[in-house]
Structures are given as structure tokens and as C-alpha cells.
Design goal:
Elements lengths: L1 E2 L5 E4 L4 H9 L2 H25 L1 H16 L5 H7 L12 E4 L5 H4 L6 E2 L2 E5 L2 E4 L4 E3 L23 E2 L2 E2 L7 E2 L3 E2 L16 H21 L4 E4 L10 E2 L7 H4 L7 E2 L11 H8 L9 E5 L2 E3 L1
Parallel strand pairs: 1-4, 2-3
Antiparallel strand pairs: 5-6, 6-7, 8-9, 10-11, 12-15, 13-14, 15-16
Helix pairs in contact: 1-2, 2-3, 6-8
């Protein structure tokens, strides 16, 4: 495996004794909720630990990685392949179920090369440090690029005759776009399970549609209040990954305050977007040829 930059990789146990205990002794609907919240809180606490105490987290994560390969890899070689140039959760942290990523290395079925690729050759890959990696077959697993017309992808969109330009808009609650009518989409969390945000978005969409149906509303548009002094920031999902930094000028922006800043904290989103009544903050409605906001 050839990699340009190492990553933090944590081995996740395949069997959770606590989950099995809860499943065996409690009704399924209760056990499911308990295990869901246990999994979320465990991940959220670990995320906070990594971001608040990065030096300690680095030692713990690297100790776990080294224990997976120490039988076949010395410390110097390990540090070369498993020392990322960033702190945990500044970029996404990888989970390997049962430590499956490390198993081929221990079994001698896989080796690692870390560095920059110079060019491809007839027989493999020429690295910039002078090393040559022999290869019969090369499978590319890099090059993630975020769509430049988010969230419309290849659809050409105009609003009131003006072409849509993503970078001039704000993301509303992580699921709508300012000045774009009747549009909602789903983007999951970068620091938690993707489906957690999908659940919240679905509940919010349902509340919005019910509100519109009840009040005979035909159009909803998120609008930024110029007097709110919302600071526009690049949308990054709280990460410094290259695919986000490269896309700073083509993605919609996020604000520095709710409801223009969201989508990174499950509990806050859950409370603000699903509990209680439906909030019409920063939403403009059109009802029976009249506008209301």
C-alpha cells in the first residue's frame, strides 16, 4: 500500500459485550435506543478528548496502532508509516472493525510505503525519494473532489433568472441553502455516524412540510438578516482535510451562529431542530400570493 500521508486508525472490537447484554435482557425497542445512545456518547466523548487533549490522544491512539503491528514492525518503521502530521480529528479518524486493516500486515500479505509519487513506470510506481514500488496492478484510492455546484451536482440551476453560484450562499441548519426556495438535502456528520444527521434532517423536513401544509404555504426560502451580522466562514465540517480546504471557494458558506452554523454536534442539532415546536427563524414563507417571515 502506497500512501502520501499517514492516518490515525483505531481497531474497533467486533463484539460489544455491553450491547449483547442489553439485547439479551431488554425489549428490542429499548435495547436499540440504549445501544444507539451508548455508541453516540462513546464516540462524542472520544472526539472531545481528541480535540481538547490532542497530545494525550496521540499517545493513546498510536500505542493501540503499534500493538497491532509490533510483531512484524519496529518502532522506527512504524513511526514512518503511522505518524500523521496533524492531530486526531483535525482530519477524519479511521475505524478498523476487528483491526482488519492491520491483519494483512501481521500476516505478511501487505507492506507499506509512505511518500510522494513522482510518476508511474512500466513496472510500478516511482517515488520522489528514489524508491521504486513494483506493481502488476495499481488501484487508485485517492483524489476525492467535492462537487463544485453543491448540492445540485451536474444540474444547472438559476433562481429568478440568475445562475446559482454555491459560494455566494449560506447553509441553513446544515440542510437548506439561503435564497434557494423549496429545497432541502441531507449531509451527515463528519465526526459521528452519517445517519444521525439523516435522522434529524428527516424529522425537520417532516415538521417543515406539516407546517407548510397546515398554513397553506407554497414556498419557503431561508433568508439571511443583514442586521444579524452573520460572519461567513468556509464550510469544513470542522476538519482540515485537503478536499475541504481545496473546496473553500466553491462550497456554500456557513455562518458563525445558529441557524447558519450547524451540522457538527448531534445533541445541539437534536435539541434545536427537533424538540419543541417548529422554529421559523430566518425563514421566509409565501402563502396565497403573500409573503410572511
Amino acid at each position: 500500500m502506497v500512501q502520501r500521508t499517514p492516518s490515525y486508525i483505531a481497531a474497533l472490537q467486533e463484539v460489544d459485550p455491553w450491547a449483547n447484554f442489553v439485547n439479551d435482557w431488554l425489549p428490542q425497542n429499548i435495547a436499540m435506543r440504549i445501544n444507539k445512545w451508548k455508541a453516540y456518547l462513546q464516540g462524542a466523548l472520544f472526539y472531545q478528548y481528541c480535540t481538547r487533549y490532542p497530545d494525550s490522544a496521540i499517545k493513546e491512539i498510536k500505542a493501540g496502532m503499534f500493538s497491532e503491528v509490533s510483531s512484524v514492525m519496529g518502532r522506527e518503521e512504524f513511526d514512518r508509516h503511522f505518524t500523521p502530521p496533524y492531530n486526531p480529528w483535525e482530519q477524519r479518524l479511521c475505524l478498523a472493525p476487528g483491526g482488519d486493516f492491520f491483519r494483512p500486515i501481521r500476516e505478511g500479505k501487505a507492506t507499506m510505503v509512505t511518500g510522494h509519487i513522482d510518476h508511474l513506470t512500466e513496472n510500478g510506481i516511482q517515488m520522489k525519494n528514489g524508491n521504486h514500488v513494483e506493481a502488476d496492478l495499481i488501484i487508485s484510492a485517492t483524489g476525492l473532489t467535492i462537487q463544485p455546484n453543491f448540492p445540485f451536482s451536474t444540474i444547472k440551476v438559476s433562481i429568478d433568472g440568475e445562475p446559482y453560484k454555491a459560494s455566494t450562499h449560506l447553509i441553513y441548519n446544515g440542510i437548506m441553502i439561503s435564497d434557494v426556495p423549496n429545497l432541502a438535502f441531507i449531509v451527515g456528520y463528519t465526526n459521528a455516524s452519517w445517519t444521525l444527521k439523516a435522522d434529524i434532517a428527516s424529522m425537520y423536513f417532516t415538521k417543515l412540510l406539516n407546517y407548510m401544509r397546515k398554513n397553506k404555504i407554497i414556498k419557503v426560502v431561508p433568508r439571511e438578516d443583514p442586521e444579524a451580522n452573520v460572519k461567513h466562514e468556509n464550510f469544513s465540517g470542522e476538519l482540515s482535510s485537503g478536499y475541504f480546504t481545496r473546496s473553500g471557494d466553491i462550497l456554500p458558506k456557513q455562518g458563525d451562529k445558529f441557524p447558519w452554523k450547524g451540522g457538527v454536534n448531534y445533541i445541539l442539532d437534536l435539541v434545536q431542530m427537533t424538540f419543541g415546536g417548529f422554529s421559523t427563524d430566518s425563514l421566509e414563507f409565501e402563502m396565497e400570493n403573500k409573503k410572511t417571515s
